[in-house]
Write a structure and sequence with these properties.
Layout (H helix, E strand, L loop, with lengths): L5 H25 L8 E15 L2 E14 L4 E14 L5 E10 L10 H4 L7 H13 L15 H7 L3 E3 L7 E6 L3 E2 L8 E2 L3 E4 L12 H14 L1 H11 L3 E5 L11 H21 L2 H15 L8 H17 L3 H10 L10 E3 L2 E3 L13 E2 L4 H10 L1 H8 L3 E3 L4 E3 L5 E5 L5 E6 L1 H5 L1 H4 L3 E5 L9 H9 L7 E5 L9 H25 L4 H13 L3 H8 L3 H9 L7 H11 L3 H10 L9 H12 L5 H11 L15 H5 L1
Parallel strand pairs: 5-9
Antiparallel strand pairs: 1-2, 2-3, 3-4, 6-9, 6-10, 7-8, 11-12, 13-18, 14-15, 16-17, 18-19
Helix pairs in contact: 3-7, 5-7, 8-9, 9-10, 10-15, 11-12, 18-20, 20-21
Length: 634
Protein backbone atom coordinates (compact mmCIF):
# COMPACT_ATOMS: atom_id res chain seq x y z
CA UNK A 1 0.00 0.00 0.00
CA UNK A 2 1.27 3.45 -0.87
CA UNK A 3 0.94 6.27 1.66
CA UNK A 4 0.88 9.96 0.74
CA UNK A 5 2.61 10.99 3.96
CA UNK A 6 4.27 9.64 7.07
CA UNK A 7 1.30 10.74 9.17
CA UNK A 8 -1.11 8.41 7.39
CA UNK A 9 1.43 5.56 7.66
CA UNK A 10 1.72 6.01 11.45
CA UNK A 11 -2.06 6.23 11.86
CA UNK A 12 -2.72 3.14 9.73
CA UNK A 13 -0.14 0.93 11.42
CA UNK A 14 0.43 2.26 14.94
CA UNK A 15 -2.83 3.76 16.24
CA UNK A 16 -3.09 1.04 18.89
CA UNK A 17 0.40 1.75 20.14
CA UNK A 18 -0.33 5.49 20.30
CA UNK A 19 -3.50 4.96 22.30
CA UNK A 20 -1.67 2.72 24.80
CA UNK A 21 1.05 5.36 25.29
CA UNK A 22 -1.58 8.06 25.78
CA UNK A 23 -3.38 5.92 28.38
CA UNK A 24 -0.14 5.31 30.30
CA UNK A 25 0.80 8.99 30.23
CA UNK A 26 -2.61 10.24 31.40
CA UNK A 27 -2.94 7.51 34.04
CA UNK A 28 0.43 8.44 35.55
CA UNK A 29 -0.38 12.14 35.39
CA UNK A 30 -3.87 11.94 36.91
CA UNK A 31 -3.23 9.11 39.32
CA UNK A 32 -6.27 7.25 38.03
CA UNK A 33 -6.55 4.55 35.38
CA UNK A 34 -7.54 5.70 31.90
CA UNK A 35 -9.45 3.02 29.96
CA UNK A 36 -9.87 2.44 26.22
CA UNK A 37 -13.42 3.76 26.29
CA UNK A 38 -12.24 7.00 27.91
CA UNK A 39 -10.36 7.92 24.72
CA UNK A 40 -13.06 8.82 22.23
CA UNK A 41 -10.86 10.26 19.44
CA UNK A 42 -7.17 10.43 18.56
CA UNK A 43 -6.08 12.50 15.59
CA UNK A 44 -2.48 12.90 14.44
CA UNK A 45 -1.88 16.57 13.77
CA UNK A 46 1.69 16.26 12.49
CA UNK A 47 4.74 14.03 12.41
CA UNK A 48 8.32 15.27 12.47
CA UNK A 49 11.66 13.49 12.15
CA UNK A 50 15.10 14.58 13.31
CA UNK A 51 17.89 12.50 11.69
CA UNK A 52 20.38 11.05 14.18
CA UNK A 53 22.23 8.66 11.88
CA UNK A 54 21.62 7.48 8.31
CA UNK A 55 18.63 5.26 9.18
CA UNK A 56 17.96 6.35 12.75
CA UNK A 57 15.72 9.30 13.62
CA UNK A 58 13.88 10.86 16.51
CA UNK A 59 10.18 10.99 15.65
CA UNK A 60 7.78 13.35 17.36
CA UNK A 61 4.07 12.71 16.83
CA UNK A 62 1.71 15.55 17.71
CA UNK A 63 -1.78 14.33 18.62
CA UNK A 64 -5.17 15.83 19.43
CA UNK A 65 -6.91 13.45 21.87
CA UNK A 66 -10.49 13.72 23.15
CA UNK A 67 -10.65 12.17 26.60
CA UNK A 68 -13.89 11.51 28.57
CA UNK A 69 -13.80 12.99 32.09
CA UNK A 70 -16.22 10.64 33.84
CA UNK A 71 -16.46 12.73 37.02
CA UNK A 72 -17.40 15.94 35.18
CA UNK A 73 -19.16 14.02 32.41
CA UNK A 74 -17.49 16.03 29.65
CA UNK A 75 -14.90 15.63 26.90
CA UNK A 76 -11.53 17.25 27.38
CA UNK A 77 -9.17 18.00 24.50
CA UNK A 78 -5.57 17.00 25.14
CA UNK A 79 -2.66 18.18 23.03
CA UNK A 80 0.06 15.58 23.35
CA UNK A 81 3.41 15.11 21.62
CA UNK A 82 5.06 11.68 21.71
CA UNK A 83 8.81 11.40 21.15
CA UNK A 84 10.26 8.12 19.85
CA UNK A 85 13.72 7.03 18.78
CA UNK A 86 13.25 4.96 15.64
CA UNK A 87 15.15 2.83 13.19
CA UNK A 88 13.53 3.12 9.77
CA UNK A 89 15.47 0.43 7.95
CA UNK A 90 14.46 -2.18 6.89
CA UNK A 91 11.19 -1.47 8.74
CA UNK A 92 10.02 0.93 11.41
CA UNK A 93 11.06 -0.08 14.93
CA UNK A 94 11.17 2.34 17.82
CA UNK A 95 11.61 2.94 21.52
CA UNK A 96 9.54 5.24 23.71
CA UNK A 97 11.44 8.33 24.84
CA UNK A 98 9.00 10.87 26.26
CA UNK A 99 5.53 12.42 26.04
CA UNK A 100 4.66 16.05 26.66
CA UNK A 101 1.35 17.90 27.00
CA UNK A 102 0.75 21.33 25.43
CA UNK A 103 -1.97 23.86 26.19
CA UNK A 104 -3.02 24.38 22.55
CA UNK A 105 -2.37 22.84 19.15
CA UNK A 106 -0.61 26.07 18.13
CA UNK A 107 2.06 25.32 20.75
CA UNK A 108 3.02 22.06 19.02
CA UNK A 109 6.46 21.84 17.34
CA UNK A 110 6.18 23.19 13.80
CA UNK A 111 5.12 20.52 11.33
CA UNK A 112 6.39 20.89 7.76
CA UNK A 113 7.19 18.61 4.85
CA UNK A 114 10.87 19.01 5.73
CA UNK A 115 10.34 17.71 9.27
CA UNK A 116 7.91 14.95 8.31
CA UNK A 117 10.30 13.39 5.79
CA UNK A 118 13.63 14.09 7.58
CA UNK A 119 14.80 16.44 4.85
CA UNK A 120 17.33 19.05 6.04
CA UNK A 121 15.84 22.55 5.91
CA UNK A 122 18.53 24.89 4.63
CA UNK A 123 18.89 28.51 3.67
CA UNK A 124 21.36 29.73 1.03
CA UNK A 125 24.28 30.01 3.45
CA UNK A 126 23.55 26.54 4.86
CA UNK A 127 23.73 25.11 1.35
CA UNK A 128 27.03 26.83 0.66
CA UNK A 129 28.46 25.44 3.89
CA UNK A 130 27.21 21.92 3.16
CA UNK A 131 28.82 22.07 -0.29
CA UNK A 132 32.13 23.02 1.34
CA UNK A 133 31.71 20.34 4.01
CA UNK A 134 31.43 17.67 1.32
CA UNK A 135 34.96 18.55 0.20
CA UNK A 136 36.27 18.62 3.76
CA UNK A 137 34.75 15.21 4.46
CA UNK A 138 37.70 13.54 2.70
CA UNK A 139 40.24 15.98 4.06
CA UNK A 140 40.13 18.42 1.11
CA UNK A 141 39.98 21.73 2.97
CA UNK A 142 39.77 23.71 -0.27
CA UNK A 143 40.31 22.50 -3.84
CA UNK A 144 43.49 23.82 -5.39
CA UNK A 145 43.59 26.11 -8.40
CA UNK A 146 45.15 23.34 -10.48
CA UNK A 147 42.49 20.73 -9.69
CA UNK A 148 39.17 22.51 -9.93
CA UNK A 149 37.18 19.76 -11.62
CA UNK A 150 35.17 17.79 -9.11
CA UNK A 151 37.33 14.74 -8.18
CA UNK A 152 34.29 12.50 -8.33
CA UNK A 153 36.17 9.22 -8.62
CA UNK A 154 38.02 9.91 -5.37
CA UNK A 155 34.83 11.09 -3.70
CA UNK A 156 32.82 8.07 -4.85
CA UNK A 157 35.46 5.67 -3.53
CA UNK A 158 35.62 7.50 -0.22
CA UNK A 159 31.87 7.24 0.26
CA UNK A 160 31.72 3.63 -0.99
CA UNK A 161 29.76 4.69 -4.05
CA UNK A 162 30.09 3.55 -7.65
CA UNK A 163 28.89 4.31 -11.17
CA UNK A 164 26.97 1.70 -13.15
CA UNK A 165 25.95 1.61 -16.80
CA UNK A 166 22.20 1.13 -17.07
CA UNK A 167 19.92 2.52 -19.75
CA UNK A 168 17.65 5.25 -18.38
CA UNK A 169 14.46 6.86 -19.73
CA UNK A 170 15.00 9.92 -21.92
CA UNK A 171 13.80 12.39 -19.28
CA UNK A 172 15.91 10.99 -16.41
CA UNK A 173 19.41 12.48 -16.11
CA UNK A 174 20.49 10.18 -13.28
CA UNK A 175 19.42 7.64 -10.72
CA UNK A 176 20.55 6.97 -7.15
CA UNK A 177 20.16 3.53 -5.52
CA UNK A 178 19.99 3.45 -1.72
CA UNK A 179 19.27 -0.29 -1.27
CA UNK A 180 20.42 -3.50 -2.92
CA UNK A 181 18.31 -3.91 -6.02
CA UNK A 182 17.78 -6.69 -8.56
CA UNK A 183 17.17 -5.46 -12.07
CA UNK A 184 14.02 -6.73 -13.82
CA UNK A 185 14.35 -8.86 -16.97
CA UNK A 186 18.09 -9.29 -16.66
CA UNK A 187 20.49 -11.97 -15.51
CA UNK A 188 20.03 -12.99 -11.86
CA UNK A 189 23.60 -11.92 -11.19
CA UNK A 190 22.76 -8.33 -12.11
CA UNK A 191 22.49 -6.86 -8.62
CA UNK A 192 22.75 -3.11 -7.99
CA UNK A 193 24.44 -2.26 -4.69
CA UNK A 194 23.56 0.65 -2.38
CA UNK A 195 25.39 3.85 -3.31
CA UNK A 196 25.21 3.18 -7.04
CA UNK A 197 24.94 6.16 -9.38
CA UNK A 198 23.56 5.72 -12.88
CA UNK A 199 24.14 8.46 -15.48
CA UNK A 200 22.28 9.22 -18.67
CA UNK A 201 24.94 10.28 -21.17
CA UNK A 202 22.26 11.70 -23.47
CA UNK A 203 20.31 13.76 -20.96
CA UNK A 204 21.45 16.43 -18.49
CA UNK A 205 19.99 19.00 -16.15
CA UNK A 206 17.98 21.45 -18.27
CA UNK A 207 19.75 20.10 -21.35
CA UNK A 208 22.41 22.80 -21.71
CA UNK A 209 23.06 23.54 -18.02
CA UNK A 210 24.28 20.10 -16.98
CA UNK A 211 26.86 17.44 -17.76
CA UNK A 212 28.22 14.25 -16.15
CA UNK A 213 30.11 16.17 -13.46
CA UNK A 214 27.01 18.07 -12.34
CA UNK A 215 24.86 14.93 -12.42
CA UNK A 216 27.38 13.11 -10.22
CA UNK A 217 27.48 16.11 -7.85
CA UNK A 218 23.67 15.97 -7.74
CA UNK A 219 23.66 12.26 -6.83
CA UNK A 220 26.37 12.70 -4.19
CA UNK A 221 24.19 15.32 -2.47
CA UNK A 222 21.33 12.79 -2.40
CA UNK A 223 23.60 10.15 -0.86
CA UNK A 224 24.94 12.49 1.82
CA UNK A 225 21.80 14.47 2.69
CA UNK A 226 18.76 12.33 1.89
CA UNK A 227 19.36 8.79 3.16
CA UNK A 228 16.91 9.19 6.04
CA UNK A 229 14.34 10.63 3.64
CA UNK A 230 14.72 7.72 1.21
CA UNK A 231 14.42 5.23 4.09
CA UNK A 232 11.07 6.86 4.99
CA UNK A 233 10.13 6.86 1.32
CA UNK A 234 10.84 3.13 1.20
CA UNK A 235 8.51 2.57 4.19
CA UNK A 236 5.68 4.46 2.51
CA UNK A 237 6.04 3.32 -1.11
CA UNK A 238 8.45 0.39 -1.17
CA UNK A 239 10.82 2.40 -3.39
CA UNK A 240 14.43 3.06 -2.44
CA UNK A 241 15.51 4.58 -5.76
CA UNK A 242 15.47 8.26 -6.72
CA UNK A 243 14.88 9.04 -10.40
CA UNK A 244 16.23 12.51 -11.11
CA UNK A 245 14.34 14.41 -13.80
CA UNK A 246 16.40 16.48 -16.21
CA UNK A 247 13.63 19.08 -16.28
CA UNK A 248 12.16 19.52 -12.79
CA UNK A 249 8.42 19.20 -12.39
CA UNK A 250 6.52 22.34 -11.51
CA UNK A 251 5.92 22.79 -7.81
CA UNK A 252 2.31 23.09 -6.70
CA UNK A 253 0.55 23.21 -3.35
CA UNK A 254 -1.79 20.59 -4.84
CA UNK A 255 0.98 17.98 -4.81
CA UNK A 256 0.69 15.22 -2.23
CA UNK A 257 3.01 15.54 0.76
CA UNK A 258 5.27 12.76 -0.49
CA UNK A 259 5.51 14.35 -3.95
CA UNK A 260 6.38 17.68 -2.32
CA UNK A 261 9.13 15.92 -0.37
CA UNK A 262 10.54 14.37 -3.55
CA UNK A 263 10.42 17.78 -5.25
CA UNK A 264 12.29 19.39 -2.34
CA UNK A 265 14.97 16.68 -2.33
CA UNK A 266 15.53 17.16 -6.07
CA UNK A 267 15.62 20.94 -5.69
CA UNK A 268 18.22 20.66 -2.93
CA UNK A 269 20.35 18.23 -4.97
CA UNK A 270 20.27 20.55 -8.01
CA UNK A 271 21.00 23.67 -5.94
CA UNK A 272 23.71 22.21 -3.70
CA UNK A 273 25.18 20.11 -6.50
CA UNK A 274 26.08 23.22 -8.48
CA UNK A 275 27.65 24.80 -5.40
CA UNK A 276 29.49 21.54 -4.70
CA UNK A 277 30.95 21.36 -8.22
CA UNK A 278 31.99 25.05 -8.08
CA UNK A 279 32.98 25.95 -4.48
CA UNK A 280 32.34 29.62 -3.88
CA UNK A 281 35.77 30.83 -2.70
CA UNK A 282 37.65 29.00 -5.43
CA UNK A 283 35.08 30.03 -8.05
CA UNK A 284 35.51 33.70 -7.15
CA UNK A 285 39.30 33.43 -7.42
CA UNK A 286 39.17 31.68 -10.79
CA UNK A 287 36.55 34.05 -12.24
CA UNK A 288 38.43 37.16 -11.14
CA UNK A 289 41.67 35.71 -12.54
CA UNK A 290 40.04 34.87 -15.89
CA UNK A 291 38.45 38.32 -15.99
CA UNK A 292 41.85 40.00 -15.66
CA UNK A 293 43.26 37.79 -18.42
CA UNK A 294 40.26 38.46 -20.67
CA UNK A 295 41.02 42.18 -20.47
CA UNK A 296 44.04 41.53 -22.68
CA UNK A 297 42.06 39.77 -25.42
CA UNK A 298 40.77 41.99 -28.27
CA UNK A 299 36.97 42.38 -28.30
CA UNK A 300 34.74 42.16 -31.35
CA UNK A 301 31.76 43.98 -29.94
CA UNK A 302 31.11 45.29 -26.44
CA UNK A 303 34.37 45.74 -24.57
CA UNK A 304 32.91 45.07 -21.13
CA UNK A 305 30.42 42.39 -22.15
CA UNK A 306 32.93 40.45 -24.24
CA UNK A 307 35.38 40.44 -21.35
CA UNK A 308 32.77 39.01 -19.00
CA UNK A 309 31.61 36.40 -21.50
CA UNK A 310 35.18 35.23 -22.09
CA UNK A 311 35.82 35.12 -18.34
CA UNK A 312 32.68 33.04 -17.72
CA UNK A 313 33.57 30.70 -20.59
CA UNK A 314 37.12 30.14 -19.34
CA UNK A 315 35.92 29.62 -15.77
CA UNK A 316 33.48 26.98 -17.00
CA UNK A 317 36.32 25.20 -18.79
CA UNK A 318 38.45 25.15 -15.64
CA UNK A 319 35.65 23.57 -13.58
CA UNK A 320 34.60 21.22 -16.38
CA UNK A 321 31.00 22.48 -16.43
CA UNK A 322 28.80 24.04 -19.14
CA UNK A 323 29.08 27.80 -19.69
CA UNK A 324 25.49 28.36 -18.58
CA UNK A 325 26.17 26.58 -15.28
CA UNK A 326 29.17 28.84 -14.66
CA UNK A 327 27.01 31.84 -15.56
CA UNK A 328 24.39 30.72 -13.04
CA UNK A 329 27.02 30.28 -10.33
CA UNK A 330 28.50 33.71 -11.03
CA UNK A 331 25.08 35.34 -10.66
CA UNK A 332 24.53 33.47 -7.38
CA UNK A 333 27.79 34.87 -6.03
CA UNK A 334 26.91 38.47 -6.87
CA UNK A 335 28.57 38.89 -10.29
CA UNK A 336 25.41 40.29 -11.88
CA UNK A 337 27.41 41.28 -14.98
CA UNK A 338 27.17 37.62 -15.92
CA UNK A 339 23.47 38.12 -16.69
CA UNK A 340 24.49 39.77 -19.96
CA UNK A 341 26.60 36.81 -21.13
CA UNK A 342 25.84 33.57 -22.99
CA UNK A 343 22.34 34.69 -23.92
CA UNK A 344 20.04 32.08 -25.45
CA UNK A 345 16.45 32.85 -26.35
CA UNK A 346 14.35 30.32 -28.25
CA UNK A 347 17.51 28.31 -29.04
CA UNK A 348 19.19 31.36 -30.59
CA UNK A 349 22.47 32.86 -29.34
CA UNK A 350 22.86 36.64 -28.99
CA UNK A 351 25.97 38.71 -28.50
CA UNK A 352 26.60 39.73 -24.86
CA UNK A 353 25.70 43.07 -23.35
CA UNK A 354 26.66 44.96 -20.20
CA UNK A 355 25.13 47.33 -17.68
CA UNK A 356 25.93 48.98 -14.37
CA UNK A 357 25.94 46.36 -11.60
CA UNK A 358 23.38 48.01 -9.30
CA UNK A 359 20.77 48.59 -12.02
CA UNK A 360 19.32 45.07 -11.94
CA UNK A 361 17.51 44.11 -8.76
CA UNK A 362 16.53 40.65 -7.59
CA UNK A 363 14.08 38.98 -9.98
CA UNK A 364 14.61 41.48 -12.79
CA UNK A 365 15.88 41.03 -16.32
CA UNK A 366 16.39 42.82 -19.62
CA UNK A 367 15.57 39.59 -21.49
CA UNK A 368 12.13 38.65 -22.77
CA UNK A 369 11.04 36.22 -25.48
CA UNK A 370 8.55 37.05 -28.20
CA UNK A 371 5.56 35.13 -26.84
CA UNK A 372 5.91 36.52 -23.34
CA UNK A 373 6.27 40.01 -24.80
CA UNK A 374 3.02 39.50 -26.72
CA UNK A 375 1.30 38.38 -23.52
CA UNK A 376 2.60 41.43 -21.67
CA UNK A 377 1.45 43.76 -24.45
CA UNK A 378 -2.06 42.32 -24.12
CA UNK A 379 -1.96 43.26 -20.44
CA UNK A 380 -0.25 46.63 -20.80
CA UNK A 381 -1.74 48.93 -23.41
CA UNK A 382 0.97 51.57 -23.07
CA UNK A 383 3.74 49.09 -23.81
CA UNK A 384 1.79 47.89 -26.82
CA UNK A 385 1.41 51.46 -28.09
CA UNK A 386 5.12 52.17 -27.62
CA UNK A 387 6.05 49.21 -29.78
CA UNK A 388 3.40 49.99 -32.40
CA UNK A 389 4.60 53.60 -32.60
CA UNK A 390 8.16 52.27 -33.14
CA UNK A 391 9.48 54.49 -30.35
CA UNK A 392 10.76 51.18 -28.99
CA UNK A 393 11.75 48.12 -30.98
CA UNK A 394 11.92 44.45 -30.01
CA UNK A 395 15.26 42.95 -31.05
CA UNK A 396 14.39 39.32 -30.37
CA UNK A 397 15.70 39.38 -26.81
CA UNK A 398 15.45 42.96 -25.47
CA UNK A 399 13.11 45.92 -25.97
CA UNK A 400 15.24 48.90 -26.92
CA UNK A 401 14.77 52.62 -27.57
CA UNK A 402 14.57 52.88 -31.36
CA UNK A 403 17.46 55.21 -32.05
CA UNK A 404 20.48 54.65 -34.29
CA UNK A 405 22.71 55.35 -31.33
CA UNK A 406 21.47 52.07 -29.85
CA UNK A 407 20.06 50.06 -32.78
CA UNK A 408 21.61 49.11 -36.10
CA UNK A 409 20.64 47.05 -39.13
CA UNK A 410 21.83 43.47 -39.47
CA UNK A 411 22.71 42.48 -43.03
CA UNK A 412 23.44 39.14 -44.67
CA UNK A 413 26.31 38.33 -47.01
CA UNK A 414 24.37 39.91 -49.90
CA UNK A 415 23.95 43.14 -47.94
CA UNK A 416 20.22 42.57 -47.44
CA UNK A 417 18.69 43.77 -44.15
CA UNK A 418 17.69 40.69 -42.12
CA UNK A 419 16.88 42.36 -38.81
CA UNK A 420 18.07 44.74 -36.15
CA UNK A 421 20.38 44.47 -33.16
CA UNK A 422 22.13 46.59 -30.57
CA UNK A 423 25.00 48.79 -31.65
CA UNK A 424 28.32 48.42 -29.86
CA UNK A 425 27.42 51.48 -27.81
CA UNK A 426 23.97 50.10 -27.00
CA UNK A 427 25.50 46.76 -26.03
CA UNK A 428 27.67 48.55 -23.48
CA UNK A 429 24.73 50.61 -22.14
CA UNK A 430 21.59 48.44 -22.11
CA UNK A 431 20.58 50.08 -18.81
CA UNK A 432 20.42 53.36 -20.75
CA UNK A 433 18.35 52.13 -23.68
CA UNK A 434 16.53 48.85 -22.81
CA UNK A 435 13.48 48.15 -20.67
CA UNK A 436 13.81 46.22 -17.41
CA UNK A 437 11.21 43.52 -16.73
CA UNK A 438 10.28 41.82 -13.50
CA UNK A 439 9.60 38.09 -13.44
CA UNK A 440 8.03 35.50 -11.17
CA UNK A 441 8.91 31.82 -11.00
CA UNK A 442 6.37 29.01 -10.83
CA UNK A 443 8.52 27.70 -7.96
CA UNK A 444 7.99 30.88 -5.96
CA UNK A 445 6.58 29.13 -2.87
CA UNK A 446 9.56 26.85 -2.36
CA UNK A 447 12.46 28.25 -4.36
CA UNK A 448 12.99 31.30 -2.19
CA UNK A 449 16.46 31.89 -3.61
CA UNK A 450 15.13 31.90 -7.19
CA UNK A 451 17.51 29.09 -8.22
CA UNK A 452 15.15 27.46 -10.71
CA UNK A 453 13.81 30.78 -11.94
CA UNK A 454 17.33 31.99 -12.73
CA UNK A 455 18.20 28.61 -14.26
CA UNK A 456 15.37 28.83 -16.76
CA UNK A 457 15.97 32.52 -17.41
CA UNK A 458 19.68 31.97 -18.05
CA UNK A 459 19.27 28.77 -20.00
CA UNK A 460 16.78 29.67 -22.71
CA UNK A 461 13.94 32.11 -22.19
CA UNK A 462 10.78 30.79 -23.83
CA UNK A 463 7.05 30.62 -23.26
CA UNK A 464 7.24 27.09 -21.87
CA UNK A 465 9.88 27.85 -19.25
CA UNK A 466 9.10 27.95 -15.59
CA UNK A 467 8.52 31.68 -15.34
CA UNK A 468 4.96 32.44 -14.34
CA UNK A 469 4.82 35.90 -15.86
CA UNK A 470 6.72 39.03 -16.71
CA UNK A 471 5.73 42.43 -15.40
CA UNK A 472 6.84 46.00 -15.65
CA UNK A 473 6.33 47.91 -12.41
CA UNK A 474 7.83 50.63 -10.28
CA UNK A 475 10.95 50.13 -8.19
CA UNK A 476 13.90 52.24 -7.11
CA UNK A 477 15.92 51.50 -10.28
CA UNK A 478 13.06 51.56 -12.71
CA UNK A 479 10.17 53.82 -13.66
CA UNK A 480 6.75 53.33 -15.10
CA UNK A 481 6.65 52.95 -18.85
CA UNK A 482 5.50 56.55 -19.25
CA UNK A 483 8.41 57.82 -17.16
CA UNK A 484 10.82 55.57 -19.03
CA UNK A 485 9.61 56.96 -22.33
CA UNK A 486 10.12 60.52 -21.06
CA UNK A 487 13.60 59.57 -19.91
CA UNK A 488 14.50 58.18 -23.32
CA UNK A 489 13.25 61.34 -24.99
CA UNK A 490 15.58 63.29 -22.69
CA UNK A 491 18.42 60.94 -23.60
CA UNK A 492 17.70 61.46 -27.28
CA UNK A 493 17.65 65.25 -26.79
CA UNK A 494 20.89 65.05 -24.82
CA UNK A 495 22.46 62.96 -27.55
CA UNK A 496 21.60 65.58 -30.15
CA UNK A 497 23.10 68.21 -27.85
CA UNK A 498 26.19 66.05 -27.49
CA UNK A 499 26.44 65.74 -31.27
CA UNK A 500 26.29 69.50 -31.57
CA UNK A 501 29.00 69.82 -28.91
CA UNK A 502 31.19 67.27 -30.68
CA UNK A 503 30.83 69.19 -33.94
CA UNK A 504 31.80 72.46 -32.26
CA UNK A 505 34.87 71.10 -30.48
CA UNK A 506 36.12 68.91 -33.35
CA UNK A 507 38.98 71.30 -34.23
CA UNK A 508 39.80 72.61 -30.75
CA UNK A 509 43.13 71.87 -29.08
CA UNK A 510 43.37 70.97 -25.40
CA UNK A 511 43.34 74.50 -23.87
CA UNK A 512 40.39 75.55 -26.03
CA UNK A 513 38.59 72.25 -25.32
CA UNK A 514 39.02 72.57 -21.55
CA UNK A 515 37.69 76.13 -21.58
CA UNK A 516 34.73 75.15 -23.78
CA UNK A 517 33.79 72.20 -21.58
CA UNK A 518 34.03 74.30 -18.43
CA UNK A 519 32.04 77.27 -19.75
CA UNK A 520 29.58 75.79 -22.28
CA UNK A 521 28.97 72.29 -20.93
CA UNK A 522 29.62 72.33 -17.17
CA UNK A 523 28.81 76.06 -16.76
CA UNK A 524 31.21 76.52 -13.86
CA UNK A 525 34.04 78.90 -12.95
CA UNK A 526 37.71 77.97 -12.65
CA UNK A 527 37.40 78.13 -8.86
CA UNK A 528 34.42 75.78 -8.88
CA UNK A 529 36.27 73.36 -11.16
CA UNK A 530 39.24 73.49 -8.79
CA UNK A 531 37.03 72.55 -5.85
CA UNK A 532 35.43 69.66 -7.75
CA UNK A 533 38.58 68.30 -9.41
CA UNK A 534 41.10 68.46 -6.54
CA UNK A 535 43.44 70.62 -8.65
CA UNK A 536 44.51 74.17 -7.83
CA UNK A 537 43.06 77.19 -9.64
CA UNK A 538 46.58 78.08 -10.83
CA UNK A 539 47.05 74.64 -12.39
CA UNK A 540 43.73 74.87 -14.24
CA UNK A 541 44.55 78.39 -15.49
CA UNK A 542 47.90 77.13 -16.79
CA UNK A 543 46.20 74.22 -18.56
CA UNK A 544 43.62 76.55 -20.09
CA UNK A 545 46.23 79.01 -21.27
CA UNK A 546 48.48 76.32 -22.73
CA UNK A 547 51.39 77.11 -20.35
CA UNK A 548 51.35 73.63 -18.83
CA UNK A 549 51.76 70.56 -21.03
CA UNK A 550 52.58 66.89 -20.39
CA UNK A 551 49.56 66.58 -18.12
CA UNK A 552 49.47 63.59 -15.78
CA UNK A 553 46.65 61.08 -16.42
CA UNK A 554 45.54 61.42 -12.79
CA UNK A 555 45.07 65.19 -13.24
CA UNK A 556 43.08 64.65 -16.42
CA UNK A 557 40.86 62.19 -14.53
CA UNK A 558 40.38 64.88 -11.88
CA UNK A 559 39.25 67.31 -14.58
CA UNK A 560 36.81 64.71 -15.95
CA UNK A 561 35.12 64.16 -12.62
CA UNK A 562 35.19 67.87 -11.83
CA UNK A 563 33.50 68.78 -15.10
CA UNK A 564 30.93 65.98 -14.68
CA UNK A 565 31.01 65.29 -18.42
CA UNK A 566 29.78 62.22 -20.31
CA UNK A 567 31.93 59.26 -21.27
CA UNK A 568 32.70 60.31 -24.83
CA UNK A 569 33.75 63.80 -23.69
CA UNK A 570 35.97 62.31 -20.98
CA UNK A 571 37.75 60.18 -23.56
CA UNK A 572 38.11 63.18 -25.89
CA UNK A 573 39.58 65.34 -23.10
CA UNK A 574 42.07 62.58 -22.25
CA UNK A 575 43.04 62.14 -25.88
CA UNK A 576 43.56 65.87 -26.47
CA UNK A 577 45.58 65.95 -23.26
CA UNK A 578 47.90 63.31 -24.74
CA UNK A 579 46.63 60.32 -22.77
CA UNK A 580 45.41 57.20 -24.60
CA UNK A 581 44.01 54.61 -22.20
CA UNK A 582 44.65 50.96 -23.06
CA UNK A 583 42.31 48.38 -21.51
CA UNK A 584 45.14 45.85 -21.62
CA UNK A 585 46.86 47.75 -18.78
CA UNK A 586 45.32 47.29 -15.36
CA UNK A 587 45.72 50.92 -14.29
CA UNK A 588 44.17 52.13 -17.52
CA UNK A 589 41.37 49.60 -17.15
CA UNK A 590 40.67 51.09 -13.73
CA UNK A 591 40.37 54.57 -15.25
CA UNK A 592 38.23 53.29 -18.12
CA UNK A 593 35.87 51.62 -15.69
CA UNK A 594 35.47 54.91 -13.83
CA UNK A 595 34.63 56.66 -17.09
CA UNK A 596 32.29 53.92 -18.32
CA UNK A 597 30.42 53.22 -15.10
CA UNK A 598 30.90 56.07 -12.64
CA UNK A 599 30.45 59.37 -14.50
CA UNK A 600 28.34 61.72 -12.42
CA UNK A 601 29.88 60.58 -9.13
CA UNK A 602 32.05 62.69 -6.89
CA UNK A 603 35.83 62.98 -6.67
CA UNK A 604 35.79 61.19 -3.32
CA UNK A 605 33.78 58.33 -4.84
CA UNK A 606 36.42 57.91 -7.55
CA UNK A 607 39.28 58.00 -5.08
CA UNK A 608 37.67 55.33 -2.89
CA UNK A 609 37.14 53.07 -5.89
CA UNK A 610 40.74 53.44 -7.06
CA UNK A 611 42.09 52.68 -3.60
CA UNK A 612 39.76 49.67 -3.29
CA UNK A 613 40.96 48.29 -6.65
CA UNK A 614 44.66 49.06 -6.06
CA UNK A 615 45.34 47.92 -9.64
CA UNK A 616 48.48 48.30 -11.68
CA UNK A 617 50.82 48.81 -8.73
CA UNK A 618 53.93 46.90 -7.86
CA UNK A 619 54.00 45.14 -4.52
CA UNK A 620 54.04 47.70 -1.73
CA UNK A 621 52.91 50.54 -4.03
CA UNK A 622 49.56 52.10 -4.82
CA UNK A 623 48.15 52.91 -8.22
CA UNK A 624 48.48 56.54 -9.33
CA UNK A 625 45.44 58.24 -7.89
CA UNK A 626 43.22 61.15 -8.89
CA UNK A 627 44.14 64.42 -7.16
CA UNK A 628 43.47 64.84 -3.47
CA UNK A 629 41.70 68.17 -2.81
CA UNK A 630 42.83 68.21 0.82
CA UNK A 631 46.50 68.27 -0.26
CA UNK A 632 45.90 71.24 -2.54
CA UNK A 633 44.19 73.13 0.28
CA UNK A 634 47.35 72.79 2.34
Amino acid sequence: MKYDNFKSYIKENYSGYLINQVKKFLSNKNGSLVLDEDIEKLEIESVGCVPIRANNVDIYICMLVDVRNNKADRLEAKYLALLLNADIKPELTFEYVDMKEYKTAEAFPQGTVFQEFAIPQMEEEDMEELAEDLWKYLGIIEPSYDSCKLPYRTLLRGWEMQIAEIELPDNIMGRMYFEKYKMDNVDKEKIINPGTVVLNDKCFFLETMGNDILTIAHEIVHWMAHRSFVAILNLLTGKSVLNCDSKPKKYSENLSDIDKAIWIAEWQANTIGMKFAMPRNLFRKILENKYQKALNIPSKHSWKADVWEKAIGETARVFGVPKLAAKQRAVELGFTEALGTWIYINKCYHFPFSFKRKVIERKQTFLIDKKNLEKLCNQNQHLKELLESEEFIYLGYVVCCNDNMYVEEVRDENNNVTGYDLTDYGRDHVDECCLIFGWESSFELMDRNDFYGQCYLNRDVSEDDYLMFYNYGENKNNQTLEEKQDEYMKVRKQRRTNNKIMDEIETKDFPELLKYLREEVAHITIEELAARSGLSSTTIKNYQSGKRKNIKPSNLMGLCVGLGIKEELCLLLLREGGVFLNDKREKDWCYLDLIHNHTGETLEDWRELIEAWNLGAKEGQKVENVPDPEKNKK
